[in-house]
Amino acid sequence: MAIATFLVLLLFSLPFASSIEQEQPQNQQQEQQIQQQDQVFSLLERHEAQLNRLETLIESLSKSVSVLESSLSSRSVPSIASPHSIASARLKPLFSEKFVFSAVARLESEPSCAATLPYADATGVSKYFAVGDPRGVTYVLSSVGEVVLEVPAVSDSPVTAILSYASASRKNESLLFTGHADGSIAAHKVSESNVGGLLRLVMVGSRPFVRGSRDLDSPPVVVLELHQIGRTRYIVVADGGGRIRVFTENAGTLYGTAITSSRPLAFMKQRLLFLTETGAGSLDLRSMVIKESECEGLNGSLAKGYVFDGSERAKAYGFTLEGDLIHVVLLGDTGNLKCRVRSIRKSEIDSGPVSIQAIRGYLLAVTQDKIYVYNVSSQYYGRVGAPRPLFLSTFQEIRSTFLNTDSITDGFSSPNPLIATDREKLVVLGLGGGYIGIYRSNFPVFKSESNAVFWTVPLLLFLLFLIGIWQFYVKKKDSLGWTPEEAFNPTTASSGSLLVPGPGERAFGDVSRGGDFRELRGSGLRGPSRTSRYAGGSSIPFRPSSSDAAFRGTADLKYRAQNLDTPPGFPARREPLFPNAQVVDEHVD
Prior knowledge:
The chain is built from 5 helices and 28 strands. The chain has helices at 2-76, 95-98, 395-399, 449-480, 490-494, and strands spanning 99-106, 113-116, 128-132, 138-142, 147-151, 159-166, 173-180, 185-195, 198-210, 221-229, 232-239, 243-248, 254-259, 264-267, 273-276, 279-284, 289-294, 303-308, 315-320, 324-332, 337-346, 355-359, 362-366, 370-375, 388-394, 419-421, 426-432, 435-441. The protein has 3 domains: 95-447, Methylamine Dehydrogenase, Chain H; 454-482; 484-589, no CATH class. The radius of gyration is 50 Å and the shape is extended. A 4-stranded antiparallel β-sheet has the order 1-28-27-26. It is α+β, with helices and mostly antiparallel strands.
């Protein structure tokens, strides 16, 4: 019974199982179709999401472009509210276009000051420059960014001034002086020698030049300059307190001290003339007497920095505490000094520390985060004008040329921005974070001095040529004995007689004896030959044929002709003195 029941159930389950087996592939196909649809929907959703993102990006880019266009339009056209804006009518080139990047170096600390050394390459650009830091250490770097020398620190006080010049005793040797914040000065001697087939800068010796003061309030050294008289050299030192000290170069002994009422800011090269915060001054080295005067046109403003022009040493440029850019000229000498302000204008630089340097034809001003470039050159000789702003660049833009990430924060740890030049092409610029950029200027420079030379020399030679010709003819005339062809006989004139005129001459009567003036007309003396028919020296009687009372008798009037025989070798001259004069000869026997 159980077996029969099992068989019946099996028979009934066979068609059901076959139906289940037929339904399973259909379900799988449906599931695959659903999965495919889900994948298609997911791809569409992803594409839609990407399109939405792209639209959002396009909108943000369009907004950025509009902002840039508005900023560029505002730069291209100066606004009326800021007439002294540095922007001009067209876009100015960037810093990297006018200053070719040479190298970059990084120091362990922020540099405090810099100066170039008197070694030049084949193109005339300085090969080395010195950089001081707040620890009192001075580094000498090459123009390719290599640290070639580390000058030992004589003082742990920050380096505030550097002076370097060529030695007079040995070739390829130079002296390097470093001034510090405590008033001390160190002297170093370096030389360029052949080491391993290459020219290298080596240290020869170092010594303290001036001891610093232990007083915390001692003024720092702000200016180091060289002054030479004949073969004697002096080191001129100016500090922040207005004191000027003069030392001899070799022994380092103090020659003299003078005090100014205002702090000196810049000295003229090889001259004891300097600019101060309030005006100008001069130092007499014999008596160590300072004469100060105000600058005409400064109007009581205080200057915070000066630099002398790279081409003309009498011109200088500076900035005042009010933010004005001034152009001054020093006239005269130590005995009679005058300072005049040629131009003054509102600058683009905000109030704050600023360092200025000059290269030939251009002025560079550096603040905490920007550099400003001005044009001070002109193709017209003697033209006076205010510095013309060219462009400005931020340090962030300059650093982006050699750094991938902007990991440096803007600003300097040192009180003054760093910039140094060789006054020709080399520019050393502190970019923050210990980075020092080395650049070469490719600005065009007008050489106005050559115009005066080219115009003066030909004129001088022409004048000398004319003078030589005149001297030659004068000497030739004297040697040949040239004399006037017609000579007046003073003895005859004094006796009151009237001379017979030569060809083209008039006859004059003796006015003192009541004689009358007549023109003697005749054709006998008019001809190509100038030889007279009358012998010179003998008088010829005159017989009047008229009863006119105006005529004189033979006792009163006498005529005599000069011997005008033309010397051989000279052509006959036919220029008459009086073209209308004629001689009357019909009454002559």
